[in-house]
Amino acid sequence: MYDVAIIGAGIIGTSIARALSRYKLSVVVFDKEDDVSMGATKANSAIVHGGFAESHSKVKGGLCFKGRKQFDQLNAELNFGFEKIGSLVLAFEEEQLAKLQELYENGLANGVDDLEILNHDQIMAMEPNVNPAVKYALYCKGAGVCSPYEMAIALAENAVANGVELLLNTEITGIQKTADGFDLMDLNGKRFQSHYVINAGGVSSDTISKMVGVDYFTITPRTGEYLLMVRGSASIINTVLFQMPTKMGKGILVTPTYYGNLLIGPDAVNEDTVDKSTHAERLLKIFNEAKHTTDKLNIKQFIRSFTGVRAVSSTDDFIIEATPVTGFINCAGIQSPGLTSSPAIAEMVLDLLKELNCPLEEDSSFNPYRAPIITRTELKPVKEIQPLVDMPSSPEKIICRCEQVNEATIIDAMNRGIPVTTVDGIKRRTRAGCGWCQGTFCRPRVAEVMEKVLGHAIDAGFDVEHSGVNRVGKNEIVDYINKHQND
User: Fold this and answer.
1) What's the distance, CA 387 to chain centroid?
2) 154: how many CB neighbours lie within 10 A of its CB?
3) pLDDT, tens digit, 9 for 90 and up, residues 282-336
4) Spatial separation of the C-alpha atoms in residues 159 and 418, rounded to whole Å
5) ∠ at Cα 172 (207, 165), nearest 5°?
6) pLDDT tens across 190-212, in order?
7) What percent of the chain lies above the pLDDT cut of 70?
8) Which tens digit of pLDDT belongs to each residue from 201-246?
9) Are 278 and 480 in contact (CB under 8 A)?
């Protein structure tokens, strides 16, 4: 019998697990995928939002800034990569000033203390490559960027190191209330018992909630497609650049990633089912809309398209509640700014558990620190690293030449308490395969290192070739945009 069972190992589930690992509790995290962070956490805008965009009357409006304030400390402890670079919401029409003022006032109501409305000259001094037609912008100094999947991996690693059990490839298909808690059954018929259950199931959170009879909300998958440019391409801008938000989201953004790639997107399309494929016509529209922010975009720098899936609740808000089924807590409908809010959501869940008399006795042996797998460094000239690429197996041998990831780093990533069984799992932890060639060179080399650690063969192409996801490739999108961008 566990004290707490968490369903879902995305940013919300891992944040809660890590928060609970501070206490003398037996905690288990279930996820149906073969790794943590496999849903919205690994495919989003990677923005640590300011906290001004969500209505003060909504749960998410109250949690965003509270979460944002914790990122410095979390990154100091867990080393997942976070940088405050600021954000600008750009207004190109005089009549949009009133909307910026509304966002500013809403931010103040949410407690945000680092907002300022800038004029044209102030914006151009900060961002010389922005469309000079810009008239005003809402500036948030403390907004930033991080690596979301690295954050979830770091949270999970630290939670596991502090005693949390992580069960991957375990899809919960049934939950039954018992006298002292819950019986949970997985897809293979295995049963688990827990006093408390936390539903952090992302796009499946409504299905999980219905298992205990709480069915007043539904989740709609909302897809958003992105274009990712090569490392170094983000040098044209300095901050996260938003256009004016709409009812469907924060609009098309142009942003640096933590590692210096330029990221453009997302659009927003409500779907009946989850489809992570990308489409040339959608990417063209995103690219053209982004050019309204800056005309310095170069489609020849494109390396990858991807689709994120947001879990949009029928309540149009986060659902974080102790349900009428005593001991069952919902964390559902966590779309943007879920990443930013995640530390505050974890705190809120702990408060709910306290109210339910979950014994939260602090564990003096808790260690909040997790060493980094990688740190952000400047890439060396190819000629300088070539001898390390060609050398025999060795800790110093460079396996991925684009991102200059060595063998020791890959082995380290595989020995941190979470089973890493795929080449893409290594990619998320080490950036091997994130460079210009997108793994064409290093995927078999990564698989070779993994085989030495695991003792069995690895299909280097499994994640890409057998995932059922059709992504628009480099040559296709360059040709398509060059042909149609002036249509």
Assistant:
1) 35
2) 27
3) 999 999 999 999 999 999 999 999 999 999 999 999 999 999 999 999 999 999 9
4) 10
5) 130
6) 999 999 999 999 999 999 999 99
7) 98
8) 999 999 999 999 999 999 999 999 999 999 999 999 999 999 987 6
9) no
- Across the range 55-82, mean pLDDT stands at 97
Phi, psi of 479 (to 5 degrees): -65, -45
Please compute the mean of the pLDDT values over residues 415-442 and round it to a whole number: 96
| CA 20 to the chain's CA centroid | 21
- Cβ neighbours of residue 345 under 8 Å, at least 6 residues apart? 12, 15, 16, 63, 67, 318, 320, 331, 334, 338
pLDDT of residue 484: 86
Determine the length of the chain: 487
CA-based angle 247:202:269, to the nearest 5?
A: 35
The C-alpha angle 285, 276, 90, rounded to 5 degrees, equals 40
The contacts of residue 58 (CB under 8 Å, 6+ apart) are 316, 317, 318
Other Cβ atoms within 10 Å of 315 Cβ, number? 14
- Crossing angle of helices 71-78 and 338-355, in 10° steps, is 90
Residue 406 three-state SS: strand
pLDDT at 129: 98
With b meaning 16 or more CB within 10 Å and e meaning fewer, what string describes 412-442? bbbebebebbbbbbbbbbbbbbbbeebbebb
Residue 468 has pLDDT above 80, yes or no: no
Those residues whose C-beta lies under 8 Å from the C-beta of residue 34, and which sit 6 or more positions away, are: 168, 169, 419, 421, 422, 425
Find out whether 352 and 94 touch, Cβ atoms under 8 Å: no
Centroid of chain to Cα 103: 24
Q: Taking a C-beta distance cutoff of 8 angstroms, is the pair 65, 50 a contact?
A: yes
Catalytic residues: 49
Which CA distances in Å does 485 have to 268, 287, 475? Answer: 20, 8, 15
